[in-house]
Structure formats: structure tokens, C-alpha cells
Amino acid sequence: MSKKVIATTQAPKALGPYSQAIQSDNTLYISGQIGIDPETDTFVGHTTIEQTQQIFKNIDAILHTAEFSRADVVKTTLFFDDLNDFTSVNKLYEVYFGANAIDTLPARSAIQVAALPKQAKIAIEIIATK
Question: Which Gene3D superfamilies does the UniProt record give (predicted)?
Fold first, then answer.
């Protein structure tokens, strides 16, 4: 089994002792992303929607660096600080993954947590495979 660290300056640096992503053979594990702009190291906006939009940009940057695409994503986990934001985030999620491609949408879990790093509104982690 091979193991490769994936890192890009186009996504925020890890907030602790972990990697942005790890590729093991044909599988990519992207650590939970929060809505931080990698250039300013600050949150993009104060709403869950604004932060989710930035998270998807960060995920795209990591996928690209690892030579993966959205089509390779097989599992997502969404961590909310408030599940009342689920419906609005779901609309962005449909656009991001392509609601017309219902047969290729990744598996997903969505949970509410007590708190997220830096008081983020949402965090998303990804598993992709080729």
C-alpha cells in the first residue's frame, strides 16, 4: 500500500498535526475543510452558505492537486453547527455534484456537532477513488 501526502497552497493549511489529504493507492482522503480563504487565512463570510461555497473551492483545489475530480468522490461527511442549515446547504451540494447525475452522487452523512474548529459553521470531509 502506498501513502502520499497531498498539499496545496490553493486550500487552507491544516490547523494541526494532520495533512490536507492523503492518497493511498487509488483512494484520496480529504481532511475536514472549513470555509477559510487560503490567501487571507480568514473565513469567507459569516453564513453557512458563504462558508460552504469556500469549502467547495478548497476541495476542488485539493482534488485537482491530487489529479482527482468531483466525479471521483464516493463519500462525503458534512458536519454542521446547526442542522437547520441543512436545506440551504443541500441546494449548493446539488449544484456542486450535479443534481442531474443522481446515479453518480456520492454517499453522504450529515450530522450536527457541538462545535467546529475556529467556530466554523460547517466542515466537509471527502473520500474519492479512481
Answer: RutC-like
